[in-house]
Design goal:
The complex is a heterotrimer. Chain B is α+β, with helices and mostly antiparallel strands. Chain B has six helices and ten strands, in the order βαββαββαββααβαββ. In chain B, strand 6 and strand 7 form a beta hairpin. Chain C is α/β, with parallel strands linked by helices. In chain C, strand 23 and strand 24 form a beta hairpin. The chains are: A mainly alpha, B alpha+beta, C alpha/beta. The complex binds ligand MGD (2 copies), iron/sulfur cluster (5 copies) and molybdenum atom.
Chain lengths: 310, 179, 735
Amino acid sequence: MHEITTTRNNHLIDPSLEIWGWEIPVYLFLGGMVAGMMIITGYFLFKQRQTEETCSCRYVPWVSLVLLSLGMFALFLDLEHKLFTWRLYTTFQVTSPMSWGAWILIIVYPAILVTILITPPKWLVEKFPVVKKYSEWLNERKIWIKNIGVANMILGAMLGMYTGILLSSLGARPLWNTSILWLLFLVSGLSGAAAFVHMVAKNVYERELLAKADNGFLTFELFVIALMIIGLLTSTQVHQEAAMLILTGPYAATFWVFVVGIGIIIPLIIQLMAVNHKVNHTPWAPIMVIVGGLILRFVIVEAGQVSSWF
Amino acid sequence: MARYGMAIDTKLCVGCMDCVVACKTENNVPEGYNRDWITEEAFGKFPNINLEIRSERCNHCENAPCVSSCPTGASHYHDIGGVVLVEYNECIGCKACIASCPYDARFIHPDGYADKCTFCIHRVEEGKDPACVSVCPTNCMIFGDLDDPNSEISKQLNSRKHHSLKPVAGTNPKIFYLT
Amino acid sequence: MELSRRRFLQISSATVTGLAAVTSLSSITKGAKKIEEKTGKPAKGIQKIPTYCDLCFWKCSAVAYLKDGELWKIEGHTNDPLSNGRLCPRGTGGVGAHYDKDRLKTPLIRKSERGEEKWVSVTWTEALDYIADKMEKIKIEYGPESMALFSHGVGGTFLKHMIKAFGSPNETAPSFAQCRGPRETGFELTFGDIVGSPERTDIENTKCMVLIGSHLGENMHNTQVQEFAKANKKGATFIVVDPRFSTAASKAKYYLPIKPGTDIALLLAWMNVIVNENLYDKDYVEKYGFGFEQFAYEIKDYTPEWAYPRTGIDPKVIRETAYEMAKHKPATIVHPGRRTTWYGDDSQRSRAIALLNALLGSWGRKGGFFMPTKLSIPSYPYPEYPKPERGRVDNPDERFPFAKGELLANGIREATITGNPYPVKGWIIYATNLLQAIPNQEETIKAIQNLDLMVVVDVVPSEIAGWADVVLPESVYLERYDELNISPFKEGFVSIRQPVVDEPSHQKPNWWIAKELGKRLGLKKYFPWNDIEDYLDTRLKSVGLSLERLKKEGVVKAPKQPIYFEDGVQPNFWTPSGKIEFYSLQLKEKGFDPVPKFTEPESPPPGYFRLLMGRAPVHTFAKTQSNPILKDMMEENSVWINNDIAMRYGLKSGDYIKLKNTDGVVSNKVKVKATERIRPDSVYMVHGFGQRSKMLKSTYLKGASDAQLTTKYKLDPLMGGTAMNVNFVTFEREA
Ligand SMILES: Nc1nc2c(c(=O)[nH]1)N[C@H]1C(S)=C(S)[C@@H](COP(=O)(O)OP(=O)(O)OC[C@H]3O[C@@H](n4cnc5c(=O)[nH]c(N)nc54)[C@H](O)[C@@H]3O)O[C@H]1N2
Ligand SMILES: Nc1nc2c(c(=O)[nH]1)N[C@H]1C(S)=C(S)[C@@H](COP(=O)(O)OP(=O)(O)OC[C@H]3O[C@@H](n4cnc5c(=O)[nH]c(N)nc54)[C@H](O)[C@@H]3O)O[C@H]1N2
Ligand code: SF4
Ligand code: SF4
Ligand code: SF4
Ligand code: SF4
Ligand code: SF4
Ligand SMILES: [Mo]
């Protein structure tokens, strides 16, 4: 027999961590979506599709801007010492993913704004004629637009990876402490963003392309999940126990039904049939993917807090 | 340079929690929170039991993930003795440090900042022992400089068997349990 | 047996001489100030005020700290032989007593049925007039002896004085017949002297200590725990006998998981080995012993093999531990325990412990039992008390022939119910929660219903206060003066309790309450002092000290005195034979066993478990549960259940269950602690939880009350103590 008792009973710490509620999963999810959208937008810009009237790169950055702001607001809501938030920007802490994140977000904003500048909407131009000047200046330089596309892709990738690394760097929580979480969150962000763009795309080519891409991302995501679980199961006992939380434990039902089933497999089947013209495209599949992505963040954040050393 | 640590003699500790109460009053730790606590670990089958009683708190790790995960530098190594401290006015309450501590030694103070054991640095700087050490009725806690070979703590660690908590976490804790 | 004689003779006394500074004391001066006199602003900086602790009855000296005029913390007084500068967790958390949100604020008078906790707030004048009026009526109708006082702790000094001046001999506390009584009787029958409090165990210097139940480390009597650790560090051997693997057991070389209630068998077997194998201290026994031959004859059959089926302890272990004790004699302590009210054979068990110590020659020896010394300060020169016409009410017809020390709280309760030998019509209850302290709550309530007056002096609306006619709110120890502490110990000393902070509202100290009541009862001549400072100063001046000095220093020590026989203390045994009575003719004469005998304890009925109880380091009985700091350390108790049993009942740690005893009494819900640390036939709870006073919000129904489940009790036939480990409980699932 091995009995452990402790008199510690700290609020939000015991019996298991409860420091992060809905705000952090929502922040990570929105960050992932924005990351995916930036990569997609960046790809289209790189492909010089911005000249196309219906190109998603014309409106998706706006969505990114909104989601990113919502995500940052969720993060802000989570901070317990809000009056001191400005402290994030008086320093850069190399070892802290949270610090990296804060600065990445600071760079992402201008990147999105510049992207918007390439094809500014009418009302904006009317309101601020100067916008037109810059926009025209940019459009005269194709290579700049290509580079902005590349920058979008790179920053998007960084943002997406960061959402995973933020958790995986917290070595004290074995479920998070896997070297593959960044990839999972990145590809999940991509699949969510692809699903979203596919759902709203006015351009038929882009719609089809993103449906196919999404199927690729979803398949890859399944593969990454498998890798992550295998990684945990072949690691130390605490990691195995952590894996059990989502495999058979209290989070298993949510994980298998919502994340894997509804979030990946079912939409994957629907979209596979759709791209092969067996069925029509339906917004349900992308909605499932997006919801699955959100729930993935919830499951990982919550189960991760429960998982611990001994 | 001093390197402060603590050695706690589990052979003497009776788990009375005086150290916890003393910390509470000394440092005004709010109701519902503790900077230190008692863990009892029992092995065996009645009546052949082995019981280890430990007074636990922040380990003031030398490789502290709470420091490396902090985005603002609020969590830092103090100039004196490598004590890990939180600068309350720099803390944004993001809780990364809490999530990264393998010992769950931290909590969010009701005023919003991350809080934990300070090794009673305010007392140590006055040449006193930390409150928990000075109150312990069994005298089982030793606070001192790990770098000074003549300090009581170094002598005890050199002459007695001891262990630290979760060494696999790789944080280089500076609290040692004499067994 | 001359109890009063030995009390004063045994204690070697010393008097301190010093300069008697004449001081005039007008108004009560607080040790510290919250507000600066000159500016009217909050005081700045740190102020340190010496006082002594009241979280239990050990009376450690302490220094209270104020920071910027606010009570901050309290530390041990470094010059104090009891604390050595370190308080126990309760003492350290003592400041919480001042901050307790549930404190009584004004006197209360009951306005409905007893026990309904409905009150009207009144002024002190109204409350005291009411009480004095009722007391006068009782005096006229039934005589002054029909007033009884239950008072636990030094705080009650002046009420005790008042009740004696009133003319009643009936003053008691649950710290005798519910606690140390059997032990003192057993030791007194053997050595002619009691163990006393603080215990005269020289743990620091012991080489081998046997703990029979007494769970040091959980039982936090400060000096004992400190010395326990010191002895441990020096490599002393500990032998722990307990049905539960206590904290102390984890420090022991030998842990003996005894079947509850069979300790006498084990003690007899130990003595058998030690006598048969000639391991006892022959010189000592020859010199000081009486009736050794008869004793040796009586115990000749109690071999370890005989004890084995009774106690469950391996004969080999019994022998080995006996050798261990003998090896270190006389620096071996077989600890007498403190709460010895267990199974009804308690005085005899304590006597067996005393006898084993006698064989080891540890009484009066270094590393055994020291001879306490005391700084003697004459009591205040009061006029003589009136002599009560009727004697004590608690022990009619000397039913318990050896109930000769303090009165039996349960005896007063019984007389209140039966009216025999004479009616008891008024209770004043000071700082004791009788519902938690005396077993069988129903009987206590029955007695209360017979009263014409019931007054409770408390600091919070305790359970017992809920039944009172008048509740008086006392200041907590940090706000008041009390009697001097001149405990007998290894060194003589005197220490002071003085106010550190002001009362938060209308609370008053005991001395003031007693004096005001005395005034109304026509007892003015018994309260000749103006106020307590006057009283304390008069006493201190009589030995050349002064209040002023004590207020500043907190503790003053007497010159060192020898405390061991080997250092010149004259051995004196106040028994009829003047020796250590191995064979007791006194007992024989009254029809008891002259040498202890073993009787088999009752076994639990099938499906039931013996209810054992004890202490948690962070609480004192039922009196600290609402202290905000200590409550934060432990808010509720849990019931320890052996793992196998828990498994059989499908219970796991953290589940809530209720306990039901054989009389059908069901407890409040309580958390399960499924553990390997207890025998399968017993369960264990920390005493003091599960209180049912609604007004004491912070403790209301937190955990379960062992007192509530202790409906059965056995009376010790020698001295009338109430044995409480005789109840059996089963589990009820929480719906
Ligand atoms: N923290 C704290 N310390 C205290 C107090 C407090 O309230 N709080 N109160 C003080 C007071 S007044 C007293 S009287 C003491 C009481 O403290 P002690 O005298 O030390 O304790 P007991 O209540 O006699 O015994 C409790 C222990 O006896 C064991 N026990 C039960 N039945 C048996 C048995 O049949 N045989 C044996 N060998 N052991 C048995 C129990 O498992 C438990 O471990 O504590 C003092 N110290
Ligand atoms: N079931 C059971 N019964 C027991 C015991 C047990 O272990 N189990 N232990 C026994 C033992 S060993 C003992 S010594 C007795 C102890 O019995 P008690 O001395 O009666 O102890 P408590 O139950 O703590 O009650 C103390 C009361 O004093 C009040 N009080 C606290 N501070 C002050 C103050 O400064 N002034 C005033 N006026 N009141 C104050 C508290 O609020 C509380 O109501 O109980 C005995 N009874
Ligand atoms: S005060 Fe000392 S003996 Fe008590 S629990 Fe803390 S370390 Fe252990
Ligand atoms: S114990 Fe935790 S809080 Fe303390 S230094 Fe180590 S990681 Fe940081
Ligand atoms: S909560 Fe405060 S101390 Fe902790 S990581 Fe965040 S900013 Fe740093
Ligand atoms: S060193 Fe000070 S802050 Fe740390 S646990 Fe001890 S008393 Fe508390
Ligand atoms: S033993 Fe603890 S509670 Fe009792 S007087 Fe001493 S410090 Fe106070
Ligand atoms: Mo007691």
